[in-house]
Amino acid sequence: MKRCPECRRDYYDDSLSYCLDDGAALLEGPTSLSVSDEAATAIMFSGDLGQALSRETPVSSEAPLRSIAVLPFAHLSSHPDDEYFCEGLAEELLNALTRIGDLKVAARTSAFSFKGKGANVAEIGRALGVETVLEGSVRKSGTRLRVTVQLVDTADGYHIWSERYDREMSDIFDIQDDITLAVVEALKFKLLGHERSAILRKGTESSEAFELYLRGRAHWNSRTHAGFLKAIENFERAIEIDPDYALAYAALADCYSFHAYFGASAPADVAPKARVAADKATSLDAGFAECRTSNAAVRLFFDYDFEGAESEYLAAIAINPQFLPAHYLYCAVLTAQGRFDEAITEGRIAVDIDPLSPHANTQLARALLCAGRLDEAVERTKKLLEVMPDFYHLHWILGWASGKTERWDLAVEHFQNAAATGGLMFYSFLGNALVNAGRADEAGALLDELNEESKRRFVPPISAAVLEGALGNVQRGLDLLDECREMQIPTVIWVGVDPIFDVFRSEPRFHELKARIGLSA
Asked: DSSP readout, 197-262?
């Protein structure tokens, strides 16, 4: 027997190759966890963000602890492919805890950023502004599971509670419930009846469908074309096993909706599938914030129904005020309608929930830019770019800001970075910047490339519309924009506020187009 090299506990047997500890031993001093680079911590302590997130007042041992971060569970299985299950289980626990009204739960992106480099719980507590951390590990072998969890006080690094579960995969829902209720008890919370029901709600009773759902969410989180396709496959398989799995239908609807938004699929091919899946999700269980948010995306992207989308996002927020996607997508709806002050307020709520979410920060930055608050947008974006230098939407925001100040060569550089990773959907911004930088020939080459690519696969004509307009072919550009509306291209929602459409704003046809998609003429 010796100390386990994976979990750092005693009672490790080389011949068995796994830890035999019963979960009761305390670690010596602060727990060793993982964190991204130092910039992740730095961004959280900058300006008003740091004030909102840091905790300076010690909490009485008699008082309930009111904040928690759930870290991605360590993967101790022999199969690398099982890592999705470890993160998925932690995320499900995190989501359950967000349904407790008085408990502050660090959101997924910020909590999961603490993975890969060593840091102690005191540092994590300061960075995320939480008093406790839930960490754990999962060993999965066939149908057997070993889940070890520890609830740690960030003030002193010692355990408040710990437990180990040796169960069958079919018991995964019991394990989730046991952990969630044990955490609630350890934090001295008194649950109201509806809160207890909410945190114990499950989308399915099938462990096999649940495992496929977690695998699908892992692929979805990659936000890549291949990831969307694999996610769709897993969600469809989950639905085959459990035809009443509302959350799987909602996730499937999201895949189809956002596949179209990013221009990877023609709306004619995926909008009907997204609509059927979203309708099924809400008909099965409209009490999940995920279902209402998926329904909102369908209404916004394919119907241009801003009022209906707003109603669904507000319903999702009422169900779960900490559900991040509802907040940043509601921010997008408000921005698209020119309601910038409301959008900024909603965007700040989203960023307060998850300071490191690239999607929340992008939507807030867009709202700030549209409101003419360039300095705030640029400062926020540059800080996040230190943490996520390859996230193309951040380069897009900086390109937009550079264009606003007529630094067109710099705008071109940022849009080139965005297009290098984000693809053809950024050609409209790049081409517009090239024309304004006096490099119309290069913009013309982009248009030729778009036209050639469209002969091989679906390419949304919105980028070609902008390039035609920027190159002086305004009427041709308007023809293409009208085609986009008829084709239900989701990004048409931005014609009212995006500066790349400025070349069309003096044309009566453009204002007729805006009115037809539900925006004020």
From this structure: HHHT--S-S-HHHHHHHHHHHHHHHT-SHHHHHHHHHHHHHHHHH-TT-HHHHHHHHHHHHHHHHT
E strands of 14-81, at which residues? 18-19, 32-35, 67-70, 74-75
Contact status, residue 381 vs residue 350, Cβ threshold 8 Å: no
Q: Which residues have a Cβ under 8 Å from the Cβ of 308 and sit 6 or more positions away?
A: 296, 299, 300
| Identity of the amino acid at 63 | A
Give the chain's end-to-end CA distance (angstroms, integer).
75
Report the alpha-carbon angle 231-289-367, nearest 5. Answer: 90
Helices 427-436 and 462-470 pack at an angle, to 10 degrees, of 10
Q: With helix as H, strand as E and coil as C, how does 71-119 read? A: CCCEECCCCHHHHHHHHHHHHHHHHHHCCCCCCEECCHHHHHCCCCEEE
Measured between alpha carbons, how far is 72 from 34 in angstroms, rounded to an integer?
Answer: 9
Q: Backbone phi, then psi, for 375, in 5-degree steps?
A: -60, -40
Tokens of 229: 């396709």
Q: Which two tokens stand for residue 309?
A: 């989308």
Q: Which long-range contacts (CB under 8 A, 24 or more apart) does 454-460 make?
A: 458/263, 458/264, 458/265, 458/266, 458/269, 459/263, 459/424, 460/263, 460/425, 460/484, 460/487, 460/489, 460/491
Mean pLDDT of 223-252: 94
Strands 117-120 and 32-35: antiparallel
Span 133-141, mean pLDDT? Answer: 89
Distance from C-alpha of 72 to C-alpha of 85, rounded to nearest angstrom:
10
Checking if the pLDDT of 157 tops 80, the result is yes
Which amino acid is residue 454, in one-letter code? S
Helix axes 358-370, 340-353, angle to 10 degrees: 160
Mean pLDDT of the residues in the chain: 85
pLDDT digits (tens, 9 = 90+) for 80-98: 777 888 888 889 889 888 8
Is the pLDDT at 65 greater than 70, yes or no? Answer: no
- The whole-model pTM stands at 0.83
pLDDT at position 470 is: 96
Residue 94 to residue 107: CA distance in whole angstroms? 8
Q: What is the mean pLDDT of residues 8-36?
A: 31
Q: Which domains does the chain have, with CATH numbers?
A: 30-202 (3.40.50.10070), 391-521 (1.25.40)
CA-to-CA dists, residue 199 to 33, 81, 186, 211, 477, angstroms: 26, 28, 16, 19, 51
